[in-house]
Predict the structure.
Amino acid sequence: MLPERMLSHSWLPPTIAGLLSVLLLGALLWSMQRHDLMEHAEEYASDADSAIQSVRLHLQRDEEFLDLLASELARGNPDCEAFQIRASEFVTDNPEMVSILWADENFLVRWVAPRETEGQVAGVRLRLPEPERASHEAKITRSPSYTRIFEFVEGNPVLALYTPVYQESRFLGVIGGVYSCEKMLQCTVPNYVLEGSRVSLADEGGNLVSTISRSSAIDPRFIQKADLSPFGRGIQLVLEPYRTGFLDTRVWMLVLLCVTLTVGVSYGMWALTREANERRKTHHILQRERDNLVNVFEAMEDGVAIVTPDLDIQYVNRVIVRDFGPYEGRKCYAYFHGHAESCSWCMMEDVIAGKTVHTEWCYLRNGRTYDLLDTRVSNPDGSVCKLKMFRDITERVEAENALRQSEHRFQQLFERAADALFLHETDGRIVEANQTACDSLGYTREEFLGLSLTDIHVDGNSETLWELLRSEALSSPITLSARQRRKDGSTFPVEVRLGPLNYGGQPLFLASARDTTERERSEHATQKRLEAEKAAAEQTWSRLAESEGLHRVTSALLQGVTLEEVLDVVCREARQLTGATGSGVLLLEDGSFRLTNWTGTPPPGEEAVPVEGSFAGLAVERAAPLFVPDLTRSDLSCYRRPRPESLIVVPLTARGSTIGALDVAGTEGTFDTSHIRILSHFAAQAAIAIEKARLREQAEQLAVMEERHRLARELHDSVTQALYSATLYADAASLAITAGQGELAASHMAALRGLAREAMLEMRLLIFELHPPALEQEGLVGAIQTRLATVETRAGLETDIRVTGEEVRLPSPVEEALYRFAQEALNNVVKHAKARSVRVQASFSPSSARLEILDDGVGFNAADAESCGGIGLRGMKERVEHLGGLVQIESEHGSGTRITAEIAL
């Protein structure tokens, strides 16, 4: 508001009002001009798109016609007369084309249509640059080729299309279509575009070669350019909109209105003007869309058909073709319904008269239901036809039928339900109840319609329920317990399930009430039984857990290899089974206990524990487990320092004799009587495993002794015999020398040297039968290299050793087994193979170790290898297979031998 001091001057208010009017006028003019510029830019862009699509559709249709002529010429049809007739009719129907010509394989023009143009080019060879280039390009590419714009007759710019004609691989010539650029613009560009814009064609250099103009006033702000590719080489369609004076009249009207009207009236006029612009824009869009109707129909998801008053199908889009098939030359009643005569319900006369008919029909031809809209449309020539729109509503109709069936089923289920069912609104007012509800509460169906849920519910979660209903927060079903009141005043417990339901298009709530009187009685009766069963189940699960623990302990004990590993498992698993703080194994040796292993705390205070006066001795003496819950009250000795608070000692008995004791210590309250039972079972398994480990060590010692005896036997059988034979040859040589028989003495001496070498070789082999120091110091590969250099090389064999993968130190049993395998194989090569060379291949991977021995000796029959005890292959296989490995032998007489051993790590 203006101050009163300013309003006292008579000239000031009009001045201020005028200034405000001028400012408002300027703002409105700027806003409307910007709005109109944006509208016109969109409008002209749409015009350019419509024009270019129209031109492309015409060119594509012409190209298809020329391709059809080319196909017929390739088959020998038509002749000159038929060509003239068909081509002339097409040129007449499409005035943008000047002529259609046929040139033979030498590009000499033979036929031309229409006949009026035949005298200009008939008998002429295609020598103009563009026709010559395009026709040759069509021949080479075997596809239609366009020329650039060039001058043809009397300086008029034209555009030509050449389609090649091939009879299999034979080139017969080209079909050419010549377009007048000016007529192309006149006949293919929509009229509303020609009325509002100057339309031109520009060549690849941007030069305008043909223009259709109705005014010289051009608005340069909205010039539109579009490329005609691929129908021409660099040809562009240029639209230059004519300048309009739409803004001048509006300016004077707004100036007058701003001076005479208030701000509110001005705003109202602007709104009215905007509505008028929208209407004008809508009218223009409708006119433009009518010209592009074919393109729109093809892009629509709905079916479109145009039927003439004679019931001939003039056009259908791709959706109708997909649903009903080809339509050419068919009547609508035969195409859509399969009838031989016109349908009795046909409404063609009503539609042609201007009536719009909306129906729904299920077509038996394809079994689909459509929403149909029939209306009248006008053709460019003034005739009228029926436009029929098909919208496939099969799924919707099926859904509606399913919904009706679902509502019917719901009504049946509602009436037949065993529970009491209520339909009510958000305020709790009951609108429907089933017969079960009437029977359970004593009301009639009419009496229920005047009640609310509050009338039949006496307690429960009623307040919370009403809050959820009023706040519309109940989006999914809920279940609650409550009590319902019958008509006579008695109550009973129920379980209510409440959820939203859309019934008959109305949002309601469905409440189901189930009488839980018997269930509460049953639950109370079974509660005690469940408690008793729970106690029994807990005891069963406890025994099952103990059984599983003992099974894991037994499995762990059986996997032990050495006695030390077995004792570690015994201590660790005993501690884990009972939750003890520490455990140890005391083995009985020479009248006292020797502490062999222990784990946890407190640590051992001494390694030897006497039998007399100790907890372990007392348990062994009684031959039963000893449980001491409080060690502070006992004077017996304990090897742990400081003394633990509680202790369980279990004797270890194997084969009827006590071999030691299992000592498990813990804090006060750690153990109970169940732990004694668990440790007793565990101690029995542990004693067996300990005895098994002892027996395994004894077996290994016996195996070592047996190996030593075997070496002694071989030393006696081979080396001793060789030395004895050498002694005989030495005596014979001495006698021959004394007798003067020099040649005989030399022969004996040669035999003596051979026996000496053989004895020396046997000694080396026997020495390497023992565990060589190189195996421990250098590993498997180093030990084999030493063996090859010491034995095989000195025996005159060519040796080679190769390593694949990264060499790593293997576990001692694996390394020993592979070395013994190689040793035995090499012994066989030296003794029996008569080979010149031997090769060793060692392969290492994270999962396995592989050793391969290959020689070029005489070979043997591999099938009989195990029966040949002198070769010793059976012992090699047993040594490797004992560790889970595999031995493979490949040999034939005269082809050498390959022996492979592989052990998984």
